[in-house]
Automatic annotation (TrEMBL):
GO terms for molecular function: ATP binding; ligase activity, forming carbon-nitrogen bonds; zinc ion binding. ATP binds at L8, S9, G10, G11, L12, D13, S14, A15, T16, A17, L18. It catalyses: 7-carboxy-7-carbaguanine + NH4(+) + 2 ATP = 7-cyano-7-carbaguanine + 2 AMP + 2 diphosphate + 2 H(+). This is 7-cyano-7-deazaguanine synthase. One of its GO terms (biological process) is tRNA queuosine(34) biosynthetic process.
Length: 222
């Protein structure tokens, strides 16, 4: 049985990565995080997606990243920008993907799974350092050194099927696989119903992706 742990935020990219893992024949175990983000709409979306796509199991782990702040997504005193920024934006969450992958690695070792899927993207993204291939490769080295399975000769692989795709290509691929993007929430400032602001960086990238793909955008905007 080919098992995988799939990081599922409830957004467009992670839903597509889950669909790709399933298409490759993996028995998918979805992992989401309540990390003190500004809204819970994406967690509600993750639960819907996990149920719709028939994962083997879906866990939500609580991490209090809001207790250290440092990001517009975890500190409500920092506004989410409504315009493009240069450099690494204030929506970067310190060490987020490092922590997420660490939990995924722990669950994978328990499940005797050797593959972890994460929907990071290095083309149409916001400039986050933990979305780059260099980071993923470094984490795979860590996985081999830090786990019982790793030191006993098992190799963990962090699968990044979206990393070189444009947002339009991601949307096209997910549409071919039957992903219902109306269920996903990408907005940094979504309301309780999951309605998007339409002006944050994530909303701009998502909208431009649908336009470039020439596919109708199902996003509900405020």
């Amino acid at each position: 049985m080919k098992k995988a742990v799939v990081l599922l935020s409830g957004g467009l990219d992670s839903a597509t990565a889950l669909a790709m893992a399933k298409q490759q024949g993996y028995y998918c175990h979805a992992l989401s995080f309540d990390y003190g983000q500004r809204h819970r709409a994406e967690l509600t979306a993750a639960s819907r997606i996990a149920e719709r796509m028939g994962v083997v199991a879906h866990k939500t782990i609580h991490i209090g990243l809001d207790s250290i702040g440092g990001s517009a997504l975890t500190d409500k005193l920092i506004d989410v920008p409504d315009h493009a920024q240069t450099g690494i934006p204030v929506t970067y969450v310190p060490a987020r993907n490092t922590l997420f992958l660490a939990f995924a690695l722990g669950w994978a070792e328990v499940l005797e799974a050797r593959d972890i899927f994460i929907g990071v993207n290095a083309v149409d993204y916001s400039g986050y350092p933990d979305c780059r291939s260099e980071f993923i490769k470094a984490f795979e080295v860590l996985a081999g050194l830090a786990t019982k399975a790793g030191v006993e000769g098992c190799k963990f692989s962090v699968q990044t099927p979206l990393i070189t795709l444009s947002k339009a290509d991601i949307i096209k691929a997910g549409t071919r696989l039957g992903v219902d993007y109306s269920m996903t929430v990408s907005c940094y400032s979504a309301d309780d119903e999951g309605k998007a602001c339409g002006v944050c960086d994530s909303c701009r990238l998502r909208r431009a992706g649908f336009e470039a793909a020439k596919i109708s955008d199902p996003t509900v905007y405020r």
